[in-house]
């Protein structure tokens, strides 16, 4: 099939999915396209990368960014703020209900003071703050749960088929080749195989959860609903296989198991066991995997690199770097300047620690990492207060994404603006009660909950 014909068919399919989406709700606001734009950027490439406008070097791109990216992001932020203003959004209530996150973001802003790159650090903090503003548009929608569901499906509708199109018909865009070995790396709409894996992880969780909660619904659109969901699950699995992202594959299985357990008969009767078992299993994994070296043994048994594709060597190098252990180098400042050059000399052109907790430590030190852990704990408590088996809320999806984020960050920098971190924030942020009560008309109180997100990922590596 010629690429032009394939592109035309993809475009027609996209329009049909947007128009005849079986999960589409006419009551959701057109403003929902604002967070959709932001999430598409977070889940694929920066606008400057799509337009082919890039800096002369990766180091320069990391430090200076792009005026095109900044302009688009600022426009989205301004429009999103105007939408929230028109809805009389209760900012004070939002901040009070998400105090651990507010404290973490405040410390991150304060860390700009001791950064070697104050202006760069502040711009990155402000851009990431724009993530929250954009996604609050979805959370303040008259139907927040339905809005979040529609938003996530729209992202998958756009990025998953487009990734397949680029890989099969535009390999110069969808496939990257290692400059030394010539080995192919399937990236689709993203910039690395790990980012493509993260996109598949999010898409797989969304459609699996959507299939589970809609399995017992007997309405006129049930057959079309299941057909669309099954088709996207198949496409997602094909892309995940192409990406060869072991972390995303394992986390997808884990997340689906959590969703299935939450909606199973045993899970509904003994939900406390599931809620308590997740953090216990994570602690047990840390003890066995890193304390007793189970990770290396398991990788060797599966025929994979015992160093987790060089990650353990990277961690050793980064832990030996000279930084302030209490407060770090400042928000988003570690991968800049002389530190970046030192790491490149030892471990090649990498731009992340491949461990979210270590990444947090390098930038914000022990204090920042501790505040982040407190936020994780508080968000888990918030999720556990809800009925995880409810089919009229996103609680089981929130529980699955929270669990996945916990494990994903062990081998990937999962909380630095990528699609997974945006979806995670969208599902754990607690909205003002007043807004929900005035906005929603759902009978079930579980539908009065919303959750929000976003941010943009800058770079990845070939690991």
Sequence-ordered SSE layout with sheet pairings:
Elements (H helix, E strand, L loop, with lengths): L2 H18 L12 H11 L3 H4 L7 H7 L2 H20 L4 H7 L1 H12 L7 H22 L4 H26 L1 H4 E3 L6 E3 L6 H22 L7 H22 L2 H18 L1 H5 L1 H21 L2 H8 L9 H9 L17 H11 L8 H29 L10 H14 L10 H10 L4 H7 L24
Antiparallel strand pairs: 1-2
What structural keywords apply?
single chain, 463 residues, mainly alpha, two-stranded antiparallel sheet, 66% helix, globular
Describe the fold and architecture.
This protein has 463 residues and is an all-alpha fold. It has one domain. Helix content is 66%, strand content 1%. The chain contains 22 helices and two strands. The protein has helices at 3-20, 33-43, 47-50, 58-64, 67-86, 91-97, 99-110, 118-139, 144-169, 171-174, 193-214, 222-243, 246-263, 265-269, 271-291, 294-301, 311-319, 337-347, 356-384, 395-408, 419-428, 433-439, and strands at residues 175-177, 184-186. A two-stranded antiparallel ribbon has the order 1-2. Helix 2 (33-43) packs antiparallel against helix 5 (67-86), helix 2 packs across helix 9 (144-169) and helix 13 runs antiparallel to helix 20 (395-408). Residues 433-463 have low confidence and may be disordered.
Largest sheet: 2 strands, antiparallel
Distance between the termini: 33 Å
- Share in helix: 55-70%
Task: Please state the overall shape, judged from the principal axes of the Cα atoms.
Answer: globular
Tell me, rounded to a whole number, the average pLDDT.
Answer: 83
Flag low-confidence runs.
433-463
Number of domains: 1
User: What's the number of helices?
Assistant: 22
β-strand percent reads under 5%
Structure classification: mainly alpha
> Mind telling me the C-alpha Rg?
21 Å
How many individual β-strands? 2
Series of secondary-structure elements, N-terminal to C-terminal = HHHHHHHHHHEEHHHHHHHHHHHH
- The strand line-up of the biggest sheet is 1-2
